[in-house]
Amino acid sequence: MATVTTRLAARAALGLATLAVVVLLVRSQLHHVVSLLEWVRSLGWLAPVAYGLIYALAVPFAVPGSLLTLTAGALFGLWPGVPVVFCASTAGSTLAFLVARQVARPWVEAWASSHPRFAAVDRAVAAEGTRMVFLLRLTPLIPFTVLNYLLGLTRIRWRDMVLASPGTLPGTFLYVYYGHVIGDVAAVAAGARPPRTPGQYVLLATGLVAALLVALRVAAVARRALTHTELAPSGEA
Known about the structure:
Layout: H1 2-27, H2 33-41, H3 47-58, H4 65-76, H5 78-103, H6 105-113, H7 116-127, H8 129-138, H9 144-152, H10 158-163, H11 169-182, H12 185-189, H13 198-231
């Protein structure tokens, strides 16, 4: 068993290292973003489709979601900016989720098989799937791409993650609106941000409340799962 776990851990480490190198290479080319976005703008009615594809493919490479969403606002405004970002971010988060599920989840499962308490908590959290992910999507404390990969390491089902995607809509609407207010793709790419507004503080407060609810819910679920594990006969744990 130890040999299998070690082999899976080595494969996971190699996969994660490869992914990290690719992410760094992609992020090092972000200075080309203005040229790319101007090309997208020139595509006319195909521009939203092209941008959606670029957005979806950029998410697994840890390109900042705020940058992608702001530029969508600068390019398209609220319509079709919001639906384009929502669909593209859902597709991109699915890609990142599946990468993590394929690369590292087997090692997590092998490790969990010898740690019944962790396995019990993992199962219990997965049973809360859609609600848990929805609350996590509302909180700003975990970066979008990081959360996608973390979810892929858990037992949470792909379907639950997708069903919880509306949790991204408040942030999506706000950032698309800000991008529309700035209105200049080059300025957005250069790091321009609008001044603080009440909407940002409301979103932040909502996110912090969601983070607290997630923490409380995870604690309750974990406590219940661990109690069940400790009370169960050894063959059932």
